[in-house]
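INFO  loader      accepted 1 record
INFO  loader      residues=338
INFO  predictor   begin
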Amino acid sequence: MLKEFADFLRLQLADPKDIVSRFGSDEFIFLKRSIIEQNIVKFTRNTIEKIRQKSFKIDGQEIFLKASAGIVLYPKDSDNINTLVNYAQASCRKAKQLGKNQCVFFNNSIYEEFINGFMLTNKIIHGIEFEEFELYFQPIYNTHSKAITHAEALIRWNHLEKGLLSPFYFIPFAESSDLIEKLDFYVLEKALESINEIIKEGLKIIISVNITGRTFLTDNFLDTFIVLIDKYKTDPGFIKIELTESIALSDENKTIQKMQALRNLGINFSMDDFGTGYSSILSLKKFPFSNIKLDQNYIMDLQNNQESAIISSHMLSMLNELNFETRRHRKRVSFLSF
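INFO  predictor   done
INFO  writer      dumping tokens
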């Protein structure tokens, strides 16, 4: 497909002096000569739109692509070819972060952000390699059995220089890159290892692990997860995967298929932050979730906000009727008990 795509790009060049060349795995460089700044924007946007509309066929399947472009100007931005390429990469990365099918002109702040991101990438990779990331377990109290039956695995970074860092410092960046998959599998592996240690202590506590949609929907997630379970000889019944509402809605068929395959192994699922998306309570029955976690915005101020209390009570009532377990803050149990 890359060859077909490269041929397609060459057709976009009107001037024989212009050059298009493959630079990376899925990256190409355009070299446009004698073009004014206003026209380069028009050319780039038109090219992106043509790519978006163009279909490529692989094994009889029709594939549509997305494109992002970073624009640098010679000699305005630099007169050094290596510097221009670095600037173009930084601008292209910024375009991808904006949602793809975008083009972005280079500026110094973009390159500074790119360099900082590059340094953070190396530090995260180093942190994973040397196990600087640690799991902390937040207990989950069962209001019926009056006991702690579950715990949620929360990742923290025990940074050598900055000390203990919360996920807000590194997760958003990791989610914008391939690093999130490395972190997700790191957490899964550490959770499986911890489950065995907890069982040895005589405790039977199910551990919940948050998995991002990007990782869960990758083709290798299921196989890699099964390999990890076999490696640690962990009872699958002691692990629960938490997925957000947005993941379930992004690709229903693929999500349900993967969930069902893991349910067949004895792994349960929890929906996290329910109420932040647009799914209805009845639509949840399509998915094999065993319990639902309401978004905190619904329950943070129940005693003082009558509207939130009414909405939460009705939601919990319907979820209970549909045989879903629900999680809520212990201090608010009496307020919402059924």
